[in-house]
Specification:
Shape: globular
Strand content: 5-15%
Number of strands: 14
Distance between the termini: 33 Å
Oligomer: single chain
Structural class: alpha/beta
Radius of gyration: 22 Å
Number of helices: 12
Length: 418
């Protein structure tokens, strides 16, 4: 079955519905008498649910998130030399170990525990947002294979039932190559409308409108291929809208940011275990392309990420499904190591990815050296993007990495708390 999305439905004429914190958080960090970060004490990890119960939420931080600001090499004097005037002070970060600490605004994340993977990228990076996003979305690290399916779409094909209304859902406007698949249905829906078709105050008008849409989307009608595809898209969107109308109630406590709205809907979708959904893709509606005034802008971005994720994790725990949901966060590339003349950071190469949920907290993989930058002043990748993805596919879902990725990469050991 082809991948269907909100943009296809729209084209068919069917309405789519679908201040740094000093001192940190008690319990995860100790301060020595010098004020330097001390020992990290995250809580014991949640143990992962059975394989068939596991779900995935992928947060795409498009624009190029600076890995050195997310996971700060606070103990390295080279970091302060290259980031003069913008480096984060050691006493402000939430230390993970003796070398890296989370951004001051990631207080909730630090307290809860997170798996940090620095230096994620590819041996042959490209500085184009479009190119690197495409590589991440399709799982094509060198950009040479150009597969017709996305990495998440291939996972959906392995994990899902073709009869399910949607095995993968993207909570954003427009389609994404990440969920392109071959045998199951994936959809893109507008999180602001909770995945529903337009809501009418007059129920008679709504009933008439839905009846017309169902007639247009009827699969038995014989038309040209273009109209057949449009009808299939409409039918899939209608089926998903029917599912969305029966979801558990939304929880309170989420921030009003785009990410908060997206994750609130994600929690409701994941709490319903009867409709075959396995993967939720969340394109974060924020600008990580911090060429100017990086420190202030990145502080806002990290606060938004932290508060939304904290609300999401509390929601999952209250629904009794925290052991079923892995959250993976990545950006298409990091930022250049030296600061520019506008207190900003230009396009870089390797970045930092996160995994949280039923995972062991700490740093995984090799941390890239600030003393072995490439010719452009960028970090060299020490963890290939396919190794990060292999951890999601094989360690989390039990899908052999070679079935969904080129080169049969190995997952990072010890991340999932099995």
């Amino acid at each position: 079955m082809v991948s269907l999305n909100r943009r296809t439905v729209l084209r068919a004429g069917i309405g789519a519905g679908a201040v740094a914190a000093v001192g940190g958080v008690a319990g995860h960090r100790l301060l020595g008498s010098s004020g330097a970060p001390g020992v990290w004490h995250p809580p014991a990890p949640i143990r992962a649910a059975a394989l068939d119960k596991r779900r995935l939420v992928v947060i795409e931080m498009a624009g190029g998130s600076d890995g050195l600001s997310m996971a700060v090499p606070y103990a390295d004097s080279r970091y302060r030399d290259l980031r003069r005037g913008t480096a984060l002070a050691a006493e402000h970060v939430h230390a993970i170990d003796g070398a890296l600490g989370l951004h001051p605004q990631l207080r909730e994340l630090a307290a809860a525990g997170v798996s940090v993977i620095p230096g994620v990228g590819t041996a042959k990076p490209d500085l184009s947002h479009f190119e690197m996003l495409h590589r991440w979305q399709t799982g094509d690290p060198e950009g040479t294979a150009r597969p017709d399916t996305g990495f998440l779409g291939r996972l959906c094909d392995h994990l899902g039932d073709p009869a399910a209304p949607a095995v993968g859902v993207s909570l954003g406007v427009g389609d994404t190559p990440a969920l392109a698949c071959e045998r199951v249905t994936t959809l893109s829906v507008d999180a602001g409308n909770d995945g529903l078709f337009p809501v009418f105050e007059d129920e008679n008008v709504r009933a008439a409108w839905l009846a017309a849409q169902r007639a247009m989307a009827h699969p038995d009608r014989a038309d040209a291929p273009l109209f057949a595809t449009a009808r299939a898209g409409g039918a899939a969107a209608l089926r998903f809208s029917d599912v969305a109308a029966t979801l558990p109630a939304a929880a309170d406590g989420y921030p009003g940011s785009d990410l908060g709205v997206q994750l609130r809907l994600a929690a409701r979708l994941l709490a319903d275990d009867n409709h075959g959904l396995r993967i939720v893709h969340v394109p974060m509606g924020a600008d990580f392309d911090t060429h100017t005034k990086h420190p202030r802008r990145y502080e806002t971005l990290m606060r938004e990420l932290d508060t939304a994720l904290a609300a999401f994790r509390r929601d999952l725990a209250a629904r009794g499904i925290a052991d079923r949901v892995l959250v993976a966060a990545y950006s298409e590339f990091g930022r250049r190591v030296p600061v520019n003349d506008s207190e900003g950071l230009d396009h870089g190469a390797a970045g930092t990815a996160l995994l949280l949920g039923p995972t062991n907290p700490g740093v995984f993989g090799e941390t890239p050296s600030l003393r072995a930058l490439d010719a452009d002043g960028n970090l060299r990748a020490t963890v290939d993007m396919t190794e990060f993805y292999a951890t999601v596919a094989e360690s989390w879902f039990g899908v052999p990495a070679g079935d969904v990725l080129p080169g049969s990469p190995r997952p990072l050991p010890g991340v999932v708390a099995a």
